[in-house]
Amino acid sequence: MADASGHPADLPKPIAPAPVAPAGISRGLWKRIISSTVLGALGAVVIAVGGLPYCLVACLVAYQASQEYFGFITSKGISQGMKPPPPLLCTIISLLCVSFIVWMYATQGAATAMLGVTGFVVLSLQLLLVKTPRFAQLTSSLFGLFYCGMDVG
């Protein structure tokens, strides 16, 4: 028995072909172009709106950046023979990065006091958690804090 379109009722209907990417662009590149355009537009809206939505997105970016940075440091090591920061210190620095963004939002950009406090906390914890910290370990922890917290905010 055939339906209104002329296909037999017991056979599945043909599926429409997928949209074809422009000539010369691979399918993966086309997906990346579309997703980056959508994310760029959403980022522009968040920046234009500002306020709390910007603060929340900046906190998410700071957290993700700190996780990526310390994941890289712990997988590669700072340099040969040196231990990476302890996991507790990495977690505290990630939280400080997010709190730095929230502090800047709450104080409308007055970051000087928070910058000194977070730097002191990171160095103090590094000295307490690592028996004999090296200068490279101290600087990598501070760099992670300022790179992931201050640059995002």
Give structural notes:
With 153 residues, the protein is mainly α. It has a domain at 50-150. Helix content is 67%, strand content 0%. It is built from five helices and no strands. The protein has helices at 27-49, 51-76, 87-106, 112-129, 135-150. Helix 2 runs antiparallel to helix 3 (87-106), helix 2 packs antiparallel against helix 5 and helix 4 (112-129) packs antiparallel against helix 5 (135-150).
Question: What structural keywords apply?
Answer:
single chain, 153 residues, mainly alpha, elongated
Secondary structure elements and pairings:
Blueprint: H1 27-49, H2 51-76, H3 87-106, H4 112-129, H5 135-150
Helix pairs in contact: 2-3, 2-5, 3-4, 3-5, 4-5
State the low-pLDDT regions, or none: none
Large-scale geometry: elongated
Subunit organisation of the chains: single chain
The total of beta strands comes to 0
Relative strand content: under 5%
Radius of gyration: 25 Å
Which class best fits the helix and strand makeup?
mainly alpha
The number of helical runs is 5
Mean of pLDDT: 79
Query: Alpha-carbon distance between the termini?
Result: 66 Å
> Largest beta sheet, briefly?
none
SSE sequence, one letter per element: HHHHH
Helix content: 55-70%
